[in-house]
Amino acid sequence: MPPIEVGSTSPLGAIQARFSRAGSTTGAATPSASAPSLSAWSESPTVDASTALDPGAVPIDLDRVALIRKAVENGTYPVIPTQIADAMIAAGVLLRSHHE
């Protein structure tokens, strides 16, 4: 099997391309006629993003958020420690069960 000869590099923007010519003994290869030209790569195609996985708008009730925010600011929002503790324990159980 004859050795593979690698020609000189020619810059193509951000990359370097190496062209080899089978049977070349000079060591200086030139790009083949079938290789794409730099101008063919300069025009990038456009890509249309699919909306198939788009979740849409976040379902936030802004009126409810404003009502809760005002109640917290006024000190009238009901804070029940046992409900908070139960929710924290339940969240911890759910997190542990998904990782096991």
Task: Walk me through what this model shows.
The protein is built from 3 helices and 2 strands; from the N terminus they run ββααα. By secondary structure, the protein is mainly alpha-helical. The longest helix is centred in the C-terminal third of the chain and has 19 residues.
Main sheet summary: 2 strands, antiparallel
Q: Reading side by side through the largest sheet, how are the strands ordered?
A: 1-2
Mean pLDDT over the full residue set? 74
Report the count of strand segments. 2
Q: Tell me, what's the shape?
A: elongated
Provide the β-strand percentage band: 5-15%
For the record, give the distance between the C-alpha atoms at the N and C termini, rounded to a whole number: 56 Å
- pLDDT below 50 for ≥5 consecutive residues: which ranges? none
Question: What is the structural class?
Answer: mainly alpha
In helices, the fraction of residues equals: 25-40%
Radius of gyration equals 33 Å
Query: Could you state the order of secondary-structure elements as H and E?
Result: EEHHH
What oligomeric state do these chains adopt? Answer: single chain
Keywords:
3 helices, 100 residues, 2 strands, mainly alpha
Write the layout of secondary structure elements.
Elements: E1 9-12, E2 15-18, H1 38-42, H2 62-74, H3 81-99
Antiparallel strand pairs: 1-2
Task: Describe the structure concisely for a colleague.
This protein is mainly α and 100 residues long.
